[in-house]
Amino acid sequence: MDFPERIEAGMQRALRYATANGCPPILAKALRHAVFPGGARIRPRLCLAVAAACGDREPLAADSAAVAIELLHCASLVHDDMPCFDNAMTRRGAPSVHAQFGEEIALLVGDGLIIAAFETIARETQQTPLLTAPMITTIAKAVGSPYGLVAGQAWESEPEINIAAYHRAKTASLFSGAVSTGAIASGGNPREWLVLADALGAAYQVADDLYDAVGQSDAGKPAGQDSRNGKPNIVASIGLEAALARLKRLVAEAVDSVPDCPGAEGFRAMIRNEATRLMPKTLATSAA
Amino acid sequence: MDFPERIEAGMQRALRYATANGCPPILAKALRHAVFPGGARIRPRLCLAVAAACGDREPLAADSAAVAIELLHCASLVHDDMPCFDNAMTRRGAPSVHAQFGEEIALLVGDGLIIAAFETIARETQQTPLLTAPMITTIAKAVGSPYGLVAGQAWESEPEINIAAYHRAKTASLFSGAVSTGAIASGGNPREWLVLADALGAAYQVADDLYDAVGQSDAGKPAGQDSRNGKPNIVASIGLEAALARLKRLVAEAVDSVPDCPGAEGFRAMIRNEATRLMPKTLATSAA
After folding, report:
1. How confident is the model over A222-268, as pLDDT tens digits?
2. Does residue B195 sit at the A interface (CB-CB below 8 Å)?
3. Which residue in A9, A24, A79, B112 is a FRET match for B20, CA 20 to 30 A apart?
């Protein structure tokens, strides 16, 4: 199976457990709505790509990490869309979870997906028990407090925002988690991959801000939302051209930082392809 | 150290990690507010008591399970208190997290505590790796979907509520998780303890409903909240006297179901003491 197939199979399996017989029917429906159809699944693909570059020694463990990371990403989108944050009524061209199922269910869907993420790793690594704790602590760090997604979102409630810490926590951390667990699952050294993860995470943040500014919402969220919500946006602060230049520089940095490993060349090619995908379509030709 | 000391030391340690240097300051304050000062810490005490009854073979693992369970309990209280659910302005005699810090932070505190719970187990079982996955899957089952706390809360959004599934998921499941992980941490058989967990969980649900009806809120939540929120309450459906009788019967059942083990007698005595604590003070003498 290629990466997308492994990811979707793993997501389906995780959701079968979470919505098994006896689940409150509305919750089950909402859990699936939050996860299918997916977006670009960029973080789990990155996780599997690093695992493959390191030799894919424990594919089941790598799959579980990829699925956990995507479940956590989906959970964060559900909670971020809620009225107390972005109050976004659509996501990936469909109603957001709270718009369709109400706030109560959206809150519970997020909680349930967070739990399902850790449960997935624990369940799928019973045959590779030395990987369970390192993968879970790595992912927890990427999404929790003080340095992960939760902290990133919480910076928005501070009177003085630490912009570097904010972006690192809100975007780069989950890329780091994806890269690190991919390496761990294959016996690689996650530290060798951290420069790459930081560069890709920062690139993705710039791309997300470009989408918001240029008004193409195929990444999932409606355009212009950042300024409506008073959120920091790099295009607003340095301008479109400088933001595009930064994106190109970050992608080049990511390509250069791929460590020596059996799959290094294929991995570099993948990043270059990904760079085009990352950009709003009207800008892609000028930056490719 | 006795159980309460082990629990508080573990909770402090978990919160030191979650609020370490670099944490957004409001988030750090709110995380602590959600956890300290604690309530009765009944679930983690139960976890450690079962571990002790089974010989306390891996006290660090048992401590991590106890802490994780209490962090998850605190997370569920923070989310349950939010406006879209109970809209409770106080908890344990202080402002609830959303009342003091706002909805955004309350949402993030709940998420952060859920993540910290799994992180704690993974971090503290690195020396006992064969326990990591079984403890995490057991606890995830107790709090997630389809059978744990998340599902229990979600039943309240269904047009037709399955009362048995609702109570099992909303209250009994976390007691089961506490008992099961206590046994697992000491090499015991969690299945031998499940009747006890079910009886105690059901007893606690009745006690909680009694508190709500009788109007003594030292368990944490304001009285009369169930009827205001249209929630099922056993006192409302079978009356005060029958509810008290059921509580007594459940406690007796719990005492009878303690399996043969080195610490069985001490454990039975603990349950009898706990029964008095469980009851609203004005009713305790008549039921002891």
Report:
1. 677 777 777 778 888 888 899 999 999 999 999 999 998 888 888 89
2. no
3. A79
Q: How many CB pairs under 8 A join A and B?
A: 203
Rounded distance between C-alpha atoms, residue B83 and residue B100, angstroms: 13
> Which chain B positions have a beta carbon within 8 Å of A108's beta carbon?
145, 150, 153-154
Pinpoint the alpha helices (H) of A89-238.
Answer: 97-101, 103-124, 129-143, 149-155, 163-167, 173-185, 194-214, 225-228, 234-238
Cis status of the peptide bond prior to A37, with omega within 30 of 0: yes
Number of Cβ within 10 Å of residue A25's Cβ equals 13
8-state DSSP, A280: -
Cα gap A279→A259, rounded to integer Å: 25
Check A26 against B154: CB less than 8 A apart. yes
pLDDT of residue A287: 44
pLDDT at A218 over 60: no
**Phi then psi dihedrals of residue B91, to 5 deg:** -155, 125
Domains parsed from chain B with CATH numbers? 3-287 (1.10.600.10)
Q: Are A198 and A176 in contact (CB under 8 A)?
A: yes
Q: How many CB atoms within 10 Å of residue A265?
A: 11
Backbone angles phi, psi at A22, to 5 degrees: 105, -10
pLDDT digits (tens, 9 = 90+) for A72-115: 999 999 999 999 999 999 998 999 999 999 999 999 999 999 99
Q: From B15, which residue of chain A is nearest by alpha-carbon distance?
A: A145
From B237's Cα to the closest Cα of chain A, the distance in A is 23
Q: Is the pLDDT of residue A288 over 50?
A: no
Report the b/e string of B50-81 with b at 16+ CB within 10 A.
bbbbbebebebbbbbbbbbbbbbbbbbbbbbb
Query: How confident is the model at residue A209, as a pLDDT?
Result: 86
SS3 assignment for B34-102:
HHCCCCCCHHHHHHHHHHHHCCCCCHHHHHHHHHHHHHHHHHHHHHHCCCCCCCCCEECCEECHHHHHC
Containing H/E element for B111?
helix B103-124
Range from A207-211, A223-227, B263-267 carrying the lowest mean pLDDT: A223-227
* Closest alpha carbon to B14 in B92, B114, B97: B114
